[in-house]
Design goal:
Layout lengths: L1 H15 L14 E2 L18 E7 L5 E8 L13 E8 L2 E8 L9 E9 L2 E9 L5 E9 L2 E10 L5 E11 L5 E9 L9 E10 L15 H7 L7 E8 L4 E4 L3 E2 L3 E2 L5 E2 L3
Antiparallel strand pairs: 1-2, 2-3, 3-4, 4-5, 5-6, 6-7, 7-8, 8-9, 9-10, 10-11, 11-12, 12-13, 13-14, 13-15, 16-17
Amino acid sequence: MTRKLFLICIIPYLLFGCSKEDVAPVFLVEEYSPYFTVNMYEDAAIGNHPKVFTLKYDARHKPLKRHWIVGCTFPPCPPAEGYMFDTVLYQNNTIRILPRSSHPEVEVIESETLLKLAGANQIEYRVFKLSTRNGHDSVRYHYSNARLDSLSTYRVFVSGNSRKENTKYFRFDAAGNLAEVETREYSKDSYTPKEIIQVKTEMFGGYDTAPNPFQALFMFDDSFYRSLSKNNFTTYQVKIFETYSNTTTYGNKRSWQLTYDTRGVPVFIW
């Protein structure tokens, strides 16, 4: 009898495995505003129109679709983004993200993002292809002790040549929360030696002690930074050092007052 029970318990693991990538996150983000997040490649996370992303998940709580809902403060309002959404496809340890439109007269620029995973919630490399661009962007991610250490972005041309665009270095505090991201921008001139022309430091702070529901949304650019931490940051500021002019400038410090649901999990709608 004991042997039969053992077999019954172990068969599901043999058939489906027990990879950490399949473990469902405890908290789901049903909708969120970029007002509370930080874009991976741009300083400004707030556009001209209020935007809210709504998410649809599969049975394993993995994002399947992210729809864009755009508000409008001053008419006339652009109708396009109201029909746009991202589809998220999974195959083995690869994620593919494709922008789509649900309106026959609203077109989106053909593009795709491919993510190869190194482990649960960890990207090994990222390839972004845009139909209007001569080549693609390729990002390589590096880890140390299961924590993101750095990433390097390359522009890869159709000819096969490549150019290193920048390198980002990630620093975390003792609690496991993201403290700084230092981005070193390199010169684009192929006729001179590679030089660092700018160092941008993004600083995160004001962390709460609540669980971070964004940890499973590492595949989207705007929520990538927030997904790296154990808790939730409430302040963000940028410092830029220009090497040629030897000058340092600071951007305006952004801060958020988070609200929490009955479970003590922050809500990211404003």
